[in-house]
Amino acid sequence: MIGTWPSLVRRLTGGQEIGGSNPLVPTSYDGIAHRCNPVFFLQALLPIALIVLLLISATTTGYCQSASFTPVQTPSSSPLMMQGYRYYMGIGVPRNYAKALRLYLAAAEKGDPQAQFIVGGMYYRGQGTDPNQKEAIRWLLKAAEQGVWSPESLTILGTMYLQGSGVPQNFQEARTYLERAAELGDLTAKKNLAYMYFNGLTGKKEYDQALKLYQEAALMGDSSAQYNVGLMYARGLGSSIDRVKAYAWFSLAASQGNLAARVASNDLMTKMSWDELNQAQALSVQLFKEVENNQDKRRSLAR
Fold first, then answer.
1. Within 10 Å of residue 109's Cβ, how many Cβ atoms?
2. Helix or strand or coil: residue 300?
3. 163: which DSSP letter?
4. What band does 25 get if pLDDT is binned at 50, 70 and 90?
5. CB of 9 within 8 A of CB of 260?
6. Does residue 40 register a pLDDT over 60?
7. Among 176, 193, 210, which residue terminates a domain?
8. Cα-flanking dihedrals φ and ψ of residue 93, to 5°?
9. Nearest to 148 by CA among 173, 120, 122, 106
10. 125 within 8 A of 41, measured Cβ to Cβ
11. Fewest Cβ atoms closer than 10 Å to its Cβ: which of 17, 36, 37, 168?
C-alpha cells in the first residue's frame, strides 16, 4: 500500500506549506486612460502577471466623454489646445511633447479642465518632461473637481491618497475616488478598495465586501486577486471555509504563473478528499472559462 491520499500528495509536492506573509496589499497604479478624452496614457503597463488590455466601456459624467488614446479636437477647443494637439500628434509640425506640454499647461493655468486633465497625464507619464507625481496629482485633482476624469485618473488619485504618495494620506478621500473608479470597472480600483475593506481602512474590517471586490477583479483575470480569493475561502474570511472554492481559485491563479498560489494549492490538496479535489478541479475549469469569456467581451468592446 502506497499510503493514504494526503500522504501520497505530500510526497508528490514535497510537503510545501503556505507562506506566512499577507499578500493582501495595495497596488501601485500604472495604467491607461480610456473611455474619456485626451492624451493621458498612450500605452498600457499593466501588472506583469496580467498582459491583457482591460479596455472597459464606461459611462461617465461632466466633460468625460468618448474614449480615445490620443488628444481629441472639438469645435470648442481653444487656440492653445489646438496648438498643443498639433504638436502632440505631429500634425503639420514635428511631434514635440515638450512644446505640447507647454501649450496645454498654458491652457490649464487659464482654468481649462480638459487641459488640466491632459497636463496631469503628461506629468504622470513623463511626456515632454520628467515624470512628476506631485504635479500630476495637482492637475488631476483640479480637473476632477471640474468634472473631467477617467476611471484611471480616479484610481490614481485614490491610490495616492491611500499610500500617502504625492498627497497626505487620507483614507476617506482614497475611498471616495476608488469607489467611483471601481463602479466604472477599473481593475486596480477594485483591488485597492478591497484592500481597504480587508484591513479596516474604511472604519471597520468588512471581509464580505473585500471578498466581493477581489472576486470581481479575479474574474477580470488578475492572478493576485484570484490568489486572494483563494486565501479568503481557505481561511473563512468573508465566507465560511470552503476548500473546494479555495483550491479552485488557487489553481486558476497558479495556471497564470502565480507561484504563491501553486504552493497554496499543493498544501491544500493534502487536506482534501478525492471527491473534494475532483469538485475543485471541475470548478477551476469553469472559472477559467468564465474569465476567458469576460476577457473576450472586453476585447470585442475595445475594437
1. 14
2. helix
3. H
4. low
5. no
6. no
7. 193
8. -145, 160
9. 120
10. yes
11. 168
* The three cell numbers locating residue 26: 495595495
User: Domain span at residue 164?
Assistant: 28-193
User: How many alpha carbons lie under 13 Å from residue 137 in its C-beta half-sphere?
Assistant: 17
Q: Tens of pLDDT along 93-134? A: 999 999 999 999 999 999 999 999 999 999 998 999 999 999
Q: Are 250 and 264 in contact (CB under 8 A)?
A: yes
Give residue 231's identity as a one-letter amino acid code.
L
The answer to whether residue 184 scores a pLDDT higher than 50 is yes
Lookup result for grid cell 484611471: 152
Q: Give the residue-averaged pLDDT of 262-290.
A: 96
Cell of 39: 492624451
Do 16 and 74 lie in one domain? The reply is no
Residue with cell 473611455: 35
Residues 244 and 284 in one domain: yes
What's the rounded Cα separation, in Å, for the pair 7 and 1? 12
Q: Which parts of the chain fold into alpha helices (H)?
A: 5-13, 79-89, 97-109, 113-125, 133-145, 151-163, 171-183, 187-198, 207-219, 223-235, 243-254, 259-269, 274-302
Residues 221 and 137 in one domain: no
Number of domains in the chain: 2
Give the span between the Cα atoms of 219 and 226, in whole angstroms.
Answer: 8
